[in-house]
């Protein structure tokens, strides 16, 4: 009987942990959304995965990575433009191999 109480206590601790961390609210919210859907999706599990992931706030490191990506894309575009400009200037002084340079 003592073993039963110990496992019940662990269950209660786990339930409080899930409640405190917001997991129960998030799951309940997604299940309510699924319940209220007029056109039920063919794959309920995919629906839950999609809506559960969408409800979580984006981690700070993901935001920082998105900002870094935008910055690097901008730098890449600038370098591509510079490269294009330098190639055009180079073509003024050196003919391309296809044109057949005089030997």
TrEMBL record:
InterPro entries: AMY1. GO terms for molecular function: transcription coactivator activity. Keywords: Coiled coil, Nucleus. It comes from the Eukaryota. GO terms for cellular component: nucleus. This is c-Myc-binding protein. Residues 62-89 form a coiled coil. It comes from Perca flavescens.
């Amino acid at each position: 009987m003592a073993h039963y109480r110990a496992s019940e206590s662990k269950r209660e601790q786990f339930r409080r942990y899930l409640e405190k961390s917001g997991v129960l609210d998030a799951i309940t919210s997604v299940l309510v959304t699924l319940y209220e859907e007029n056109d039920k999706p063919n794959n309920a599990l995919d629906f839950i995965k999609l809506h559960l992931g969408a409800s979580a706030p984006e981690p700070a490191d993901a935001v920082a990575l998105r900002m870094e990506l935008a910055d690097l894309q901008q730098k890449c575009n600038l370098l591509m433009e510079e490269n294009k400009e330098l190639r055009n200037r180079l073509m003024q002084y050196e003919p391309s191999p296809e044109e057949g340079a005089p030997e």
